[in-house]
Fold this protein.
Amino acid sequence: MIVRQKNQSDLNACFRLVLAINISIFSVSMILAQPVSAPAATVTLIGDVPAAEILARLGAKFEAGTSLKLLDEYANHFDRTDPNRDGKHTQQEYVERGRYMTAQARAGIFRAADENNDAVVTRSEYVLNRIITDEAKGIIQGMNDSRSGRVEKAEFVSHATKLLEDEKLANELYGKLDRNRDGKILVPEYLVLWGQWAREGRGSAKERIAKRREVVATSLSQTAPAAAAAVDAEVRGRTGGPPSVEQVFQRFDRDKDGKLVKAEIPEFVRQFILPADANKDDAVTKKELTEFRGKDGAGGPGVPSRGARGTVPSGRPTDAGDKVP
């Protein structure tokens, strides 16, 4: 009887233990299942001034100071280092297999550009990082009066005080940038914090680059007639007729790879070049453009030969002496 009671007591104890473990597991599971809120966006203050505002007072314009040409140049460089053309750089593609600079430098650029830390750098992230770093180097290295490559404190504070109109703030800023406290700052040293501050509270790289392209495109659409006239004078006007294939490539093939891609060609002349892409690889070669032009008149299908009646890019009727692409 005593043994039976003891066994029953042990069973009850085991049951209570199992129940307690299950309750604990359930509680932990519920905690882990709760959505994790994103950390609040932080704004760095130097003194009592937001760091991004200080950068602007030093002369930073961020993407707002970038032309369409420069946006396209950065994007083209990204594409040349994106072997599978998926619009992303992995560490293996950019750092391990890269050809430019050292592997250590490429790794630093990759980390700086990867704003969401997903181990992938998108085209927008790369372009924004180029904008930020190139502008930062232009501003800070411009303070290096000795041209030594190392911006010393006296140089920086002298220039920054004039721009910020606050010597104390200039000294505080230098103290932040001089991370190893040796009295001089090098490019990799100051770019770390500058890059962080230039991104604070300004949206994702994708949003920022898309918005800038939209603004520039709107501006260009308003000045397209004048731009077309400038191209007429610069490229077409020298021969009295359409520009030669060589002239077209000299004018627009910025990376000199013998191919014209959409990003290299101004919008108002794309209609005369892009249709020549016979193999649909999103690039026009000299051979393709030459063959395209030979199909129907000097400029290709639908483009009148010199002396014919038609229209020029501005939309007005042409006369016998007008020049068309």
Notes: The longest helix spans residues 2-33. The beta strands are 45-46, 49-50, 88-90, 120-122, 151-152, 184-185, 259-260, 284-285. The CA atoms of residues 87 and 96 lie 18 Å apart.
